[in-house]
Amino acid sequence: MTLQEEIARRRTFAIISHPDAGKTTLTEKFLLYGGAINTAGSVKGKATAKHAVSDWMEIEKQRGISVTSSVLQFEYDGCCINILDTPGHQDFSEDTYRTLMAADSAVMVIDGSKGVEAQTKKLFKVCAMSHIPIFTFINKMDRDAMDTFELLDDIESTLGIATCPVNWPIGSGKDFRGIYDRKSREVIQYSDTQKGTKEGTETDTSIQDKDALVRMIGEDAYNKLTEEIELIDGASTAFDLEQVRAGQLTPVFFGSALQNFGVEIFLKAFLQMALPPTPRLSEGEPVDPVNGGFSAFVFKIQANMNKAHRDRIAFMRICSGRYEAGMEVKHVQSGRTARLSQPQQLMASSRKVLEEAYAGDIMGVFDPGIYSIGDTLCDKDRNYRFAGIPTFAPEHFARVRQMDTMKRDQFVKGIRQIAQEGAIQVFQEYNTGMEEIIAGVVGVLQFDVLKFRLKSEYNVDIRLEVLPYEHIRWIENPDEVDVKKIVGTTDMKLVKDMKDNPLLLFVNEWSPQMVLDRNKGLRLAEFSRN
Ligand code: G4P
């Protein structure tokens, strides 16, 4: 296969959802279709273990396969699919957001009985920032769901993206009869005996064939369906692939991941509509995935996969070209040549050392401590610099107090190191140094991680004092305003980040706007690109 063909068949995406919407179950069904696992059936008995482990570790336990990784790769229908892990539940952290920066598109799973939930909203915002296409799968139609029009309305009004139903559910819960495919104008019948069958056994009946349909789904369901079809054909946004690919319109599919209904239909359509790796911008210039030579950027650093060695793995997304074993590349930020040591790809079936990889793929390489999140690697004769990964707004803050002041050096070193890996963000009083340290995190579990790591790796005990701040704004134009003279609100605190960027912390949601009103010319941002 040529380089062009290899890249063209790649699809790299993340699944975004609120916990319990069915991400794990859907992923498992995808793997089943891809032949990466053979046994069908639902992921059972995870309720108790759920909060202790990541979703994929659960599949690993259930199926005895190794998926504890950043990416799952498998083949389906001629495509090479990379699903990126977006940790949810308690291990939700900035890594979850950063991973989205490595995806070319996103699958949004929504529980049909709940609509858009909090975590989906947060993840959607990050996807929308990079304008990636978003494909919606409304799950759990075998349970009583919200009215279909209401569900679509909810997506449009809560997330601000237009929707276009590709298929349409016929009832839900015990009255779920199947889905109507708007393009072929056929009904695909639901039967829960499909649970566990690898190939769908759906039967398709044309909407024109009234008698057969009435026999299949009943007269009431038939009447309701034809009415609804008339409404959606008249009122919903027309399907427009360009708009989908620009992230302005989300195609919507319905089904049940657990019962394995509508999943393969979704997967096939998704693979057709989603784009292979497209050019990424290096200092404003697009880098062609096929002709741009090798390039990649680091989106995640995982420390201490092996505690004895304090080792770190840098996960990078290949943006262009081909990686070959033993290749030497330029680490742009340091200007040094780096040999990508033992790159690993963590596959559904096993962890293996990579011989080759292409644009769209993810690899984990051993990091001797030179990489930072957002760094670029490329061929030695090139000088790409991909746009850095933004620093996302933490939502929880705590003052970090050191118990034993004799260990000041270890404390500062540990805090710096952990912050550099991106596990926490560190802020200081604007005028002082490291005396007063405030840690900010996206997910509260990160506080425990900080405490645990400082103790186990640096032998430092800390105490955390939770602070009431929930909103953060970076000052975008510190050169144009006198930061110390900002007229604030009573709940505001002025601090600086590790790179000395000034920023403001607030308790109340409405305070940033008040501060903007009181200080003409001041510009505030919800994330930092520095
Ligand atoms: P998550 O990764 O998004 O957190 O969700 P996960 O797939 O683990 O699914 C959460 C629960 O919802 C699971 O129940 C799963 O079996 C169920 N589920 C997933 N898809 C469907 C569906 O299409 N229909 C129905 N009816 N259920 C679905 P569980 O963990 O086994 O039990 P429990 O958590 O309900 O106790």
Structural account:
With 530 residues, the protein is of the alpha+beta class. It has 13 helices and 31 strands. The chain is globular. The protein starts with a helix and ends in a 5-residue tail after the last strand. The structure holds guanosine-5',3'-tetraphosphate. The site of guanosine-5',3'-tetraphosphate has 21 residues, from helix 2.
Number of helices: 13
Structural class: alpha+beta
First-residue to last-residue Cα separation: 40 Å
Q: Sheet with the most strands?
A: 8 strands, antiparallel
The amount of beta strand, in percent, is 25-35%
Strand tally: 31
- Give a list of the ligands: guanosine-5',3'-tetraphosphate
Radius of gyration: 25 Å
Trace the largest sheet across and list its strands.
27-24-26-25-29-30-28-31
Estimate the mean pLDDT confidence: 85
Broad shape: globular
Unreliable stretches (pLDDT < 50, length at least 5) are: 39-68, 346-350
Percent range for helical residues? 25-40%
List the helices and strands and how they pair.
Elements: H1 3-8, E1 10-17, H2 23-33, H3 55-63, E2 71-76, E3 79-84, H4 94-100, E4 105-111, H5 118-129, E5 134-139, H6 148-159, E6 162-165, E7 167-170, E8 178-181, E9 186-189, E10 204-206, H7 210-217, H8 219-235, H9 241-245, E11 249-254, H10 263-273, E12 280-282, E13 285-287, E14 295-303, E15 312-320, E16 322-324, E17 328-331, E18 336-339, E19 344-346, E20 351-353, E21 356-358, E22 362-366, E23 376-378, E24 396-402, H11 408-420, E25 425-429, E26 437-441, H12 445-458, E27 462-467, E28 471-475, E29 492-497, E30 502-506, H13 511-518, E31 524-525
The structure holds guanosine-5',3'-tetraphosphate.
Residues 17, 19-25, 42, 44, 46-47, 55, 139-140, 142-143, 256-259 line the site of guanosine-5',3'-tetraphosphate.
